[in-house]
Amino acid sequence: MKATSFVVFITSVFISFCSFSCKNTNVDAPDSLTVSEGFKNPIGFYDSLPSFSWKLPVTESVKSQSAYQIICASSKGFLPNNPDLWDSKKQESPQSTFVKYQGENLKSRQKVYWQIRFWNQDENASDWSEINSFELGLLNNTDWQAKWVGLNTAKNNIRGVRKFLMHRPQYLRKGFELSSDVVSARLYITAKGVFDVHLNGNDVSDDVMSPGWTPYIIV
């Protein structure tokens, strides 16, 4: 009877010790991942050398960050084991904001998937974060092949034309047909002023007053 009680006691102590150890070594993943100036999974991003930021989880096991690792890949399926664009390796640093990308050269229209993990004050590694992404826009003037569509206000025979004269809104419509089904598509658009785009009567974006204040001055 005493031997049985002793075995039960030892087993209980062992289970309690394992539970305590597991509780203290498990570190939740970082969250609130953003790119550069706080963008969340941006599309049409402007910078081929972005920076990354994240927040540490609010848990008992995390008091500070002692190191981090960022990985980037051209496909979601490459993460976390085969990051083909960049692997920062383990960096001994408490920095968690505006960490600069230092991987392969990125090109216009390229989509990049990325993850982050960190080590806490006890050198325990966190879980990998959720996979985030950013997609580059047109980075060079040579990538832009479109032509301006609108009223040619440079002609002298248009009455009332002045350099800073505000014209009434222009409504443009273009019909087209596709020869096959669409898997994904991107519309690259800008305007001298603001624009609102619809496709088959549906607004293509939640943005308001795009593209914002943008000067277009011919030098």
TrEMBL record:
Keyword Ribonucleoprotein part of the UniProt annotation: no
Domain Bacterial alpha-L-rhamnosidase N-terminal: 181-216
EC number: 3.2.1.40
Enzyme class: hydrolase
Keywords, in A-Z order: Glycosidase, Hydrolase
InterPro entries per the UniProt record, alphabetical: Alpha_rhamnosid, Bac_rhamnosid_N, Ig-like_fold
Domain of life the protein comes from: Bacteria
Keyword Nucleotidyltransferase in record: no
One Pfam family from the record: Ig_Rha78A_N
Gene Ontology MF term list: alpha-L-rhamnosidase activity
Protein name, entry field: Alfa-L-rhamnosidase
